[in-house]
Amino acid sequence: MVRNHLSHLPDSKLRWFKQRIRSYLKFRKVLSTFQDEHFVDICSQKCFTSHTSACCGREGIITFFADVVVNVLLSTQEEIDVLLDTLDSDTGGLNCVYLNNTGCLWRVKPIVCEMFLCEHAKNLVLDGNNALKSQWEKFRRRERRYTWPSRVVLFDELEAYFIGAGCDSPLMYLHRSPGLLRLKARHGLGRKQSSKGRQV
Ligand code: SF4
Ligand code: SF4
């Protein structure tokens, strides 16, 4: 649905999307570097070599609609085809459907995946290292600037855009989750009419 919609947009609108997500991508880049520097060895040792990842268990994560939008914007057509083929050929199992031998199939994995650290990893890396702990807390606060709708946030805006374009998805939590809707209402971000007359 996202790919189809984006494929009909003029280049100027696609450039607008890419501009709009630029700061978020910068955040993702430094976050990914932090994960690589401090967690990749522990994660490889504990989970990937034994094929038992608590991070990438089936039904273990939440994916936001905006995660899909960002990933489609950044992916090649072939990469999106692989994701769709994977869903079509899913045969069950304990792992996330998008986990293959080389890791996650998403180009920009969902933010909940990137921010997840199990207790084992947190204890080993963050406990006793105040500088790293403080850096991790900063990342958590920065994540909320894009995803937590106590103010206007990117993830809410992206959902609203696609709702305005006539799309609907159960992943639109910022417009569907009762808790998040209450949060928005408390901060004066209640429902308003989109340009197409829908409530967004
Ligand atoms: S964060 Fe924990 S569960 Fe996830 S891959 Fe690393 S060690 Fe495994
Ligand atoms: S989407 Fe990727 S990172 Fe997230 S659980 Fe699935 S395989 Fe793991």
Question: How does this structure look, described?
Answer:
59% of the residues lie in helices and 2% in strands. It is built from 12 helices and 2 strands. The chain has a two-stranded antiparallel sheet with strand order 1-2. The protein is mainly α. Strand 1 and strand 2 form a beta hairpin. Bound molecules: iron/sulfur cluster (2 copies). The site of one iron/sulfur cluster has 11 residues, from loops. One iron/sulfur cluster (SF4) binds next to loops.
Task: Looking at this protein, list some descriptive labels.
200 residues; mainly alpha; two-stranded antiparallel sheet; 2 strands; disordered C terminus; binds iron/sulfur cluster
Q: What's the arrangement of secondary structure elements?
A:
Elements: H1 2-7, H2 11-20, H3 22-38, H4 40-48, H5 65-74, H6 77-88, E1 99-100, E2 103-104, H7 111-115, H8 119-125, H9 130-147, H10 154-164, H11 173-176, H12 178-186
Antiparallel strand pairs: 1-2
Helix pairs in contact: 5-10
The structure holds iron/sulfur cluster (2 copies).
